[in-house]
Every structure is written in structure tokens, then in C-alpha cells.
Amino acid sequence: MVAGELETPDIGEVTADNWSRVITTIDRTDLALVMRTLRLSTLLENALTERLRPLKLTQAEFYVLTTLRTAGPAHESRPSDLADRLLLTTGGLSNLLRRLTARGLVEREQSLDDRRSTRVRLSAEGATIADQCLEVWSDAQQRFFRGVPSPHRAETSAALARLLSDVDSWPAPGADQSSWASD
After folding, report:
1. Which CA distances in Å does 149 have to 9, 28, 56, 71, 162?
2. What global pTM score does this model have?
């Protein structure tokens, strides 16, 4: 293999080549970036799923536990805040919390401030499992990025942060999207 040559075909370039034959006005660079981002996300999710198997956790359960673990010293949150942070519906989160409660990993209790609302908190066992989850994530992350020098990772992270900031300012789904075409 020649230095700098990829071992497998680059999904970004292959897709850009294929699509640009059909849609001649498509921005090849943007399409390649999207496809590479999706591929990386899929690979990372697959690696995470494999590493979570011994803990008998789904990715959604992983995200609930690690979000609570990193939510400050009380390791707790209101369910609505947790759903917003994890981009889940309240119904979907309720199902996750029911399973995690049944396993003894989280506890639900009424809020002391507002009796109408509840708080979700990690149990001691949940905190232990969440710590193992964070180690699993850290290991997968290090394996994924070990071949990329730190300055390149920092530049890529900054560029993605700018992109996400822009995308987060877009209209909500279902809102008038007529202005998108002019951007």
C-alpha cells in the first residue's frame, strides 16, 4: 500500500462520485463530509454496542446512566430535563427508566421542591455501572482516534462544533423551512 492510501474505499469519495453523476449540482465536499460522519457514527455505535453487551445494557440505557453520572454530585435529574438532553420522548424515557429501576440502577422519587414532579437518581449500583460505561466509552474513543494527531482532532472538533451551532439555529422540524433554499 502507498503511504496515505486508504485500505478500504472511502465512503465519502465513492458516494460523491456516484451521486454527482446523477445530481451534477451537488456539493461533493459536503456530501463526502456527511457520509464520512455517518460512517464514523455507525462504527462508533457498533463498537459501543459490542462493548456494552457484557453489561447487559442498550445504548439508550448507557446514555441515561452516563448522563445521570455526569449530572453533578447528586447524580440526578428531572425526567423532562433528561429527555430533552438525550433527545428522547418522555414516553421513550419512561420505558427506559422503568427497566433501569427494575434492575436497581436508578431510583425515582418525588421532588422535595415540587410534589407534582419527580427526580431520577442513580443508585449506588447504577453509579458503579455508569463508571464502567464511561470506561467503555473512553476505551472506544481512544481506539477510534489513536491514528489521528491531536492537533487534527482539535481542528476537526472545532469545525464540527461550528457546524452544530449553525444547525442548532435552524427552524424546528415542522416549522416553515422555505428559507433553507436561500441559505
Report:
1. 22, 25, 34, 30, 20
2. 0.75
